[in-house]
Amino acid sequence: MSEAEPTIAVVDDDLSIRRSLERLLRSAGYRVTTFASAREFLERVASDRPDCAVLDVRMPGQSGLDLHGKLAAAGRDIPAIFITGDADFFTADRAMKAGATDFLSKPFDVYVLLSAIERAVAQGRQRRPPGK
Questions:
Q1: What is the DSSP letter of 103?
Q2: pLDDT tens per residue across span 105-125
Q3: CB 84, CB 91: distance < 8 Å
Q4: Residue 64: Cβ-neighbour burial (10 angstroms; 0-12, 13-18, 19+)
Q5: By the 8 A CB rule, do 64 and 56 touch?
Q6: Domains of the chain in sequence order
Q7: Could you read off the pLDDT of 37-60 as tens digits, one per residue?
Q8: Selection from 80-89, 99-108, 114-123 with the highest mean pLDDT
Q9: Rounded to an integer, what distance in angstroms lies between the CA atom of residue 8 and that of residue 51?
């Protein structure tokens, strides 16, 4: 994985959100992979490790919080930014206590998102063992 082009995984059941985030993040110099569900993410991202994951909180099936918990339980420490259209204190608190890098309410300012991703990528690279 190139230091110049971090990989960002976007997991959101809304196609328009996935497409707009993909365009935004690519224009900001990131490699982007998108997934319509937590299940698709888990099936397609076997050994690759994105530098950051942008996870929708509320999705059919497994939520972004469920996905984050599964990754943590499997020892896959991927910095996560949660996004949601239905923000509430308890969900935000749960996400932050679970180790989220940030929690953003839709619609969010793109510069706030880009800043959060930059911080998440930096934190993830600091925590990653050398050579991985």
A1: E
A2: 999 999 999 999 999 999 888
A3: yes
A4: buried
A5: yes
A6: 7-126 (3.40.50.2300)
A7: 999 999 887 667 899 999 999 999
A8: 114-123
A9: 6
Q: Is the pTM of this model over 0.70?
A: yes
At 123, list the tokens.
Answer: 């934190």
| CA distance linking residue 80 with residue 65, whole number of Å | 10
Q: Exposure string (b/e) for 17-42, b if CB count within 10 Å is 16 or more?
A: bbeebbebbeeeebbbbbbbbbeebb
Secondary structure E strands in 70-126: 80-84, 102-105
- Residue in 50, 116, 46, 47 with CA at minimum distance from that of residue 34: 50
Would you put residue 29 in left (φ > 0), alpha (ψ -120 to 50) or beta? left
Token pair, residue 9, equals 């995984």
Helix, strand and coil percent figures for the chain, each rounded to 5:
45, 20, 40
